[in-house]
Structure formats: C-alpha cells, structure tokens
Write the structure tokens for this entry.
Amino acid sequence: MTDRREAPFAFEGLDRVLHEKARLGILTSLADYREGLSFGELRDLCGLTDGNLSRHVQILEEAGLIEVTKGFEGRRPHTNCKLTPEGRQRFDDYLAVLEQVLLRARGDAVSGSARPKEGKPA
Amino acid sequence: MNDIDSALSDIQRIRDRLADGTRFEGFAPGIVALTGVFAFALSAWQVHGRSASLLAWIILALVCALMIGTEAIVRARAVHRAMADRLINSTLQRFLPVGLAGAIVGFVILLQFPEQVRLLPGLWQLLMAVGICAALGNLPAAMRWPAAFYFVTGTISLAVSGDALIDTAWLMGLPFGIGQFLVAVTLYVSSGRTPHD
C-alpha cells in the first residue's frame, strides 16, 4: 500500500462518484434546496438532457447520495430528488479535499511567482 | 480575485449551505437524559433538606452544559467528519446568546434582586425554549415539542412564582427533569433522520 505521505498528490479523498462534471452540478444544485428539486428543475439548472440526467441521478441514487421520490402532482407524474444525510456528508468531505487541493495550488502559485523563471537569471 | 480564490469562495458557500441543512448529531440522548435525572435529584434533595439555593442550580446548569458540550464535540467529530467544525460553530452561535442571557439574568437577580429569585425558574425555562427554537434548523423538526413544553412550563412557573406554597426546587426540577427527558427521547427517536422529517 502506498503511504499517503509518499504520495501527497494522490487525492484519495476525491470520490470518483462525485468527481464528474454533471454529478457535481446535480449535487451543488441540491445542496441549495433542503426539500430537493424536481427532475425538470434539475435538468434546467444543470443544462442536461433527460437521458443524461436520468443516468447520473441513477448513479447517485445507487451510491446512496441522493433520494429519488416518484409521485404525482395533480395528474402529472412528479419526480423529486434530494440529498440524503450521507450524501450531504460525503459531498462535504469531497469539497474539503477539493479545498485543500486549491489551497495547495494557491500556495504553490504564490511561491511559484516569487521564484525566478526557468532558464532566466534571477 | 483570481480563479483559485473565486473557486475557494464558491466551495465555502456550498459547504455553508450543506451545513445549514444538516442535522447536528452531536447531542447524545443518554447524556441529555442524565441531566434530567440530575435536575430531579437536586430538586428532591433540596425539598428534603428544606434548601432552595439557586446557586446549586447554576452550578448544575454549568456542569450539564459542560457534559453535553464535551460529548457533542467528540460525537460531532466522529459523525460529521469534515463538516463537524461548521456544525459545532453554527449550533454554538445559536445556543450561546441564550445561555449567556440566562447566566446574566441569573446573576443579576441573585445579586441585586434576591427577593425576585422565584422568577428565575420560569425565565430559564422560557430561555431554554428560545434556545431550542433558535437551533431548530440543525435539529430534528420534532424538537419543536420539547420547545413548546418549555414555553408552557416557563409560563406556568412564572404565573405561580408568587405562590409561596410551591417550592422553588420543584419549579426547577420538575420542568427541567421532564423537559430534558423529552429532549432525550426526541433525539433518540429522530436519530438518523433528516432535519425536517
């Protein structure tokens, strides 16, 4: 097993299920709405097609990150998606790792800008 | 603001929103129930010993707050992982002003108006109700019932505070004993559910 100290850029905490553009969009949209969002609202917010959204919602549901409730609003079928408590927790864990990556990048950028450019004298 | 700063600020905003809608799982029902037992025990001891020292209640409140607080921090770190500090801070920010108000009211009445000391149990119960309501965003929705209980008992305690036949110890022990037990049962029954279940 690789020691974490030996591989500081392994970013083990970046959960593969979450680390995908469309799924990040879905989770970020749902983070703002405690009661969840309808399928149509999610589709509009994330700019996805019905088929694409369905596929990503299914992946997130199978991973236990979101809860999908199917019912009716009047006579029309209504699908509601909301983050599960575990989903909130795992998304926050993911964001915490992402934050560390960015902080490290910013630190490197600051120290990098102070460093003389390669091939040129200081 | 460069791209990294802007991304960091977006992440902060999303994490704040996630914490806002997350139920704080730090409060241990067992410890909360134990504080109710302490309240009963102290009132029984005071009634039996014909003592009505409210200072003992202030000390008990501090001990209980320390017990609940310490357990909450330990549990939150285990359960909420990266979100723990945010949830602890937001819960503290909601409870602390009410706790501070209770302490100030207690000390001012004890030091300056000791003849009004019988008002304190009712005032503290009302403040307890306000504290629970303030933190409802991170607590199970059913916690509104213990809050309502404290509102009712606070009103009754204030209304009967002029009746010298009712022992001050019972005005404290009975409502807080039952109230803390209600809080513990609500926390236990709602464990694992979302804040708005």
